Amino acid sequence: MPYYQKLGEIPRKHHIWFHRNGAAPTYKNEGIAYEHVFTTQGFDEAYSIMYHLRPPTRVRNVKLVKYHELKKAADSPLRHHHLKTANIPRRGDLYAGRVPMLFNQDMTAYRAKPAKAHDKFEYYKNGGADEIIFVFHGGGTLESVFGELRYRAEDYIVIPRGITYRIVPDKVEEEDYLILESAGPVRIPQRYLNHEGQIKMGAPYSERDLHGPSELITIDKEEDVDVLVKDGPRWTHVTLAHHPFDAVGWDGYLYPFTFNAQDFEPITGTVHQPPPIHQTFEIRGYVVCTFAPRMLDTHPEAVKIPWVHDNVEADEVLFYVRGNFGSRRGIESGSGEQECSAHRGTRGYVRYATHARVDGGIARARRSEVSAELARLTNKERRFPRRRRRFGNRRSLMLGYFKHHL
Q1: Which of 13, 14, 5, 20 is nearest to 52 (CA)?
Q2: Distance linking the first and last C-alpha atoms of the chain
Q3: CA neighbor of 258 nearest in space, from 94, 176, 141
């Protein structure tokens, strides 16, 4: 949850009439704007309140597009995997062209390299999951009822569930995403917040690094608008009776925002620090970490690499963004490496989990002072089955993020 924000016109109190006072012709000449309370966790958690030109409940038609449940690949031995995703072909549009790679009950991870911006639908809503879109390459604008939100390369775009949006890329041929679809809400880690809800000094980022919509979009059009709505495996074509971006104002704590990986301030020590210091977001069942360029450990005898370790309660997945990854050869940006450290629910198996630097990484690290790599780590508490998928070049595909016990 980011900080409080306000755009446009709102009444002086919650839940009172918002009279337009002749500002423009109003719906059925009722002379008011229509309040809409937006929450994703009931009425006790974060919310925003917006005010529409027309009642937001006006739906013309609803039609099922498809019902598509993900199926895991065939069972395989418990082992590490390195799946190269940099050269997957472009396919589909910004919404339907997403390629699922990993999933469980808490999240689904996709790679997306769209061939075109929009096909049948310009507007999209994920009604069942929060989304984190990491912009590997590209830039553009995310439009929603909350306004225009610019994004750029290495941004995390966080989109709470239930928000209808449209992505308008500057150059669709450059767009390249890692997308995490989360059953739980995406939040700032609780330990980064003081009792008043402000991000503490000493956290790896502050409110100034979180960017919400900058300019309101108020589209006053009485026309049918088609929206593609995803709710888990169910995809629905919803036709609205007017344009959904018709808010004249809103305020609150729940809205889409961006955070750029370059604004993450790494925490270092005299010796190597554990992965939780890199945590960026907290979600039910997993966390997302940012491994940003940083000074390496300063102790004269420090081993400047991750220790050999077992993380047997989590699947660790790394997505390499740029730079020289120090612990393993053969890594390219845009590739993923899954450290399969546990398969939840298979308690009878011996867990094959030990992992660390290989191929001379320990010896090379003695001469290093700065880490120039940028990577995402997602550590998942529950097992990730791999999604069965075949590409034209027959390469498999994977990505990265991380869940750690905190």
Answers
A1: 20
A2: 19
A3: 141
CA–CA separation, 135 vs 94, rounded Å?
12
The DSSP letter of residue 362 is: H
Rg (CA), the chain: 22
Check if the beta carbon of residue 370 is closer than 8 Å to that of residue 296: yes
The first and second tokens of residue 346, run together, are 């298979």
- Cα separation of 51 and 251, whole Å? 9
85 token code pair: 């995703």
* Residue that is written with structure tokens 């050269």 in the block: 87
Q: Which amino acid is at 53?
A: L
Counting Cβ atoms within 10 Å, is residue 251 exposed (0-12), middle (13-18) or buried (19+)?
middle
pLDDT in tens for each of the 406 residues of the chain? 689 999 999 999 999 999 998 878 899 999 999 999 999 998 989 999 999 999 999 999 999 999 999 988 877 787 787 778 888 999 999 999 999 988 888 999 999 999 999 999 999 999 999 999 999 999 999 999 999 999 999 999 999 999 999 999 999 999 999 999 999 999 999 999 999 999 999 999 999 999 999 999 999 999 999 999 999 999 999 999 999 999 999 999 999 999 999 999 988 888 888 888 899 999 999 999 998 887 788 888 888 777 777 777 778 888 888 876 655 565 666 555 443 333 333 322 233 344 555 455 545 555 555 555 566 566 655 655 655 443 333 222 223 344 433 2
